[in-house]
Amino acid sequence: MTVILGSAAVAFALVGLIYTVAGRRTPRNVLLGAHGTPTEVPDVRELHLSQGAGQRVVGPALSGLAERIRRISPVGRVEALYRQIELAGLTNKYPVELVLLVKFVAGAAVLAAWIFTPLRDAIPYAPIVAILTTLIAFFLPDYLVLRTAEARQLQIQQDLADSLDQITMSVEAGLGFEGAVERVVTAGSGPLNDELRRMLLEMQLGASRSDALRHLADRTTVPDLKSFVFAIVQSEAYGLPIAQVLRVQASELRDKRRQRAEERALKIPVLLIFPLAFGIFPALFIVLLGPAAIRIFRDLSPTLNP
Questions:
Q1: Which pLDDT belongs to residue 41?
Q2: Beta carbons within 10 angstroms of residue 40's beta carbon
């Protein structure tokens, strides 16, 4: 247990150092403003001198190491990891090179702790435990990114119906589609608003509405959002009234949300079977049958032991 805790402490310390030194990136709103508007660009020399010695010296070294790790990693694995980081909304904060570096350092730190510890011979099945803990440390960043991506996509799905209702009401009130989306983005927050804000920024930079919407759908895995994007693109291609399309899409999303709620409600009795069978029923049987069993045992004791 001491070796495992020590290995975990070393791994977390190294990972924290990497995130502190190499993970500090200039926020996008420093150059584009809070909503994509141009602002004054800081002087590069002053920005470099304002950083600590660790960032100026260790940062480039870690960046170079991360780039080398990315080059030797399988291309398919790197692309899959980048996709998960994009779905988690961490592309700007934690690039794929940094995550690969964290995986490598965490696994190497745990393995080194096992190799150089003097207590490894006293631990049963030490080689197997060492391999398992090293693999856990290596794949833990992947698991955290995956869980973050799943939670973010679920939040987007939950927020989509309400946001679409607001967009529909704004369009019916006379606003254009972009203006309605901007109003929703300004009034709210969350991962869906972040993606819509990015879509508006792409349109401001020259992308067409159809391309920006397709990019929005590509950055998510929510089927309802993809259906919404497909409907808007088709309405623009065939010249259909966008207000009518939005109204139909909003109604369908409300129906789907109600159906998902009903499905979750129907699953509750099934989920309660195991707590009832293994938790409540045994205690209930003990309370109800316990006194009767004790009385029967007392009544039969003279007969069994004459």
A1: 47
A2: 8
Residue 111 · residue 136 · CB < 8 Å? no
Q: What's the pLDDT tens digit per position in 164-199?
A: 888 888 888 888 888 888 888 888 788 888 888 888
Helix, strand, coil percentages for the chain (3-state, nearest 5): 80, 0, 20
DSSP state of 121: G
d(CA 114, CA 127) in angstroms, rounded, equals 9
- For residues 93 and 58, the answer to whether their CB atoms sit within 8 Å is no
User: Which two structure tokens, joined as six digits, stand for 52?
Assistant: 């600590």
Asked if residue 166 lies in contact with residue 183, where contact means CB atoms within 8 angstroms, the answer is yes
For the stretch 19-70, pLDDT in tens is 444 444 444 444 444 444 444 544 545 544 555 555 554 456 556 666 666 6
SS3 114: helix
pTM for the full predicted model: 0.67
Half-sphere exposure of 173 (CA within 13 A, CB side): 10
Name the nearest CA neighbour of 152 among 221, 95, 69: 221
CA quadruple 104, 110, 114, 117: dihedral sign:
positive
**Whether the Cβ atoms of residue 237 and residue 224 lie closer than 8 Å to each other:** no
Place of tokens 């490894």: 120
State in Å, rounded, how far the first CA of the chain is from the last one: 56
